C-alpha cells in the first residue's frame, strides 16, 4: 500500500478512499497537491462523516476566535488592513460554559473580560464535508503580495455548517495569563472557562470532566483548523514564509487573518499507522504537582485549547475531558505553524494537555443545568446530577443496578445516575404545559436485599402508577397524565430502599426534531448483532433548518429509549425519511418481545398506526432493513390513543 504525502505538509486532513480507488487523481491540474489515501494517514481527518464512537464529543467541540489587540485594546490589523484574530479549540462542559486554554484568552487580548468578547464557532456534521472540504484547500494569490490570498469559500453545499455565539472569559488560571476568578493550584496553570450567550450546549450537547486521569487509557482530540494545500518552499517570500513558517510577528502569518478570510474545518485526530491509538505519556512535573501531561497527539498553532479526551470508564461510547491542549514539543514543530507529520511518530511527545486537577478547578463553580431543562421536562443528565444535586440523594453509578437484566441493561447506554429512595416521598419538578396530555415513565430496582413498593402520585394525590420492586429485577412504571397537573409529581417508596433512574416525561403529541441535546438524549444506534453489541449514541447530521437529523446506517436500528411510553394504548407514528430502502419500525416491550410493522416511505414521509399494545413498551425503533445508503430520519412523533 503506497503512502502519498503533499510536499509542504501544511495540509492536515487524511482522505479515506476505498482501496480500489488508490489511483484517483483528485486535482490533476495541481501536481503538488497530493492527498494521502487509504488508512495510512497523517494525523487528522475532516469530521464530517458519521462516527458513533466520538459522536457526542465532536458535537460539543467548537473553536473560539479571539481578536488580537494592541496595548490600547484596539484590534490589530495586518499589512493590508485586515483585522487580526487568533483561533483556539474549546469544548462545552455545560449548556453555557466551555473550557479552553488560558493562554488563548490572556490579558493581552482579553484585557477587559466584560468588554472584550470572543466568538465561539460550532459545527454541525455532514457527510458531504468528507470530500467537500477539498474545494477550499487550494490557496492562491493573484499578485506578488502574499497577503492577497484567496481560496474558494465552503458553503452548506460542501457539507460546511457553522453557527456562532458570543462569549466572555469568566475564569482564567495561570500567573502568565492574568488570573481571573482563580487562585491557581500552580502558577504555571493554563486553563480557562468561557460563558457563551445563547446556551450552545443546549443544542450541541456537552461532556463530563473526568474524575481521574487513567494511566494507559488512549486519548482523542477533536479540533478545527484551516486546511490548505500550497505549492511552497522555504524562502519563497510567499506562502511558506507567511503560512507554513511560524513567526512571533502574527501580522506576517495569514493564519491570523480575520474578517472571515480563513475558514476553520472541523477535524478529529486519528490513530497512527496500524491503528495504534494516540497515547498518554509522562506527567510534568511528577504528581501531585503536575501541570501538564504529554501525549503523541499533534496539531498546529491554533490547536491550543482543543479538548484532549479519554474514554469514559463507566459509559461505553462516551469520552470525558482531561484538559485543553496547551504545549507543543519536539523537532516536528521547528518554526512551523503546523507540526511536520514526517518528523513525528507514535509514542513521542508532541502535544500536552493541562493537568486534570487544573481543569477540575476551573469548572468547579459551573452550574447552569436549569438552562438545559427549562421548558423541556426532566433531563437527568450525568453532568447535571453530579454538579447540581438538586432533588435527592443519589448514587451516580450504582453497584445495585441489575447487571443481569439483559434488555433493560442494554438500553441504558447513557448510564444515568440512580436516585435511592428510602421510605419517603420525593417531589419531582416537571414542566408540563396546561391542557396538554403528558406521559411519564421511569425504571426502578431494589437498592438492597428487601423488596419495596414504588408509587407515582400527582399533585392531587391520585396514584398514577405503582409497582412491586424485587431485588435483582427491574420494574417499569408508566402513566398517562390526561389533565394538567401543575408543576410537580411525587415518587413514594414503601418497604425496602428503591433505586429510581431514567425518569422520562414527554408531551403526548410532541414531535422530536433532535434540535436540542435533550431531544437526542437516549437515542442510540444498534448494530445487526443486537444484544451482542452495546448500544452506542446515534449519529446526527445537519438538517435544512439548521438543526439536526439522525443518520441511520443500512442494517442498523435507531432506538429511542426516552419517549415515556405507556401500555394499553394504540399508537400513531410519523417521521420524515430522506433516502431509499425498506424500513421497519416498532416497539420493544419490557419482556423483550417486539411489535413491528413495515414503514413505507412515501414522498419523504412515513405514517403508520399500531393497534392497542397491552404491555408497556420500553423503546421505539426504526430499522433500515434494506438500504444501500444511510437514511436521514427527522421529526419523529409518537402519539398515543386509547
C-alpha termini separation: 62 Å
Poorly predicted segments: 1-41, 372-383, 385-397
Spatial order of strands in the largest sheet:
2-3-4-9-8-5
The assigned structural class equals mainly beta
The overall average pLDDT, rounded, is 82
- The tally of helices reads 9
- The number of strands is 37
Q: Helix content range of the residues, please?
A: under 10%
Globular, elongated, flat, extended or rod-shaped: what is the shape?
A: globular
* Integer-rounded radius of gyration: 26 Å
Strand content: 25-35%
User: Mind describing the biggest β-sheet?
Assistant: 6 strands, antiparallel, barrel
List keywords for this structure.
642 residues; mainly beta; 6-stranded antiparallel beta barrel; 9 helices; 8% helix; globular
Question: Could you please describe the fold and organization of this structure?
Answer:
The structure is a single chain. This protein is mainly beta and 642 residues long. Helix content is 8%, strand content 35%. A six-stranded antiparallel beta barrel has the order 2-3-4-9-8-5. Strands 26, 29, 30, 32, 35 and 37 form a six-stranded antiparallel β-sheet that branches. The chain has a six-stranded antiparallel β-sheet with strand order 28-27-31-36-33-34, with no helix packed on it. 49% of the residues are buried. The model is unreliable at 1-41, 372-383 and 385-397 (pLDDT under 50).
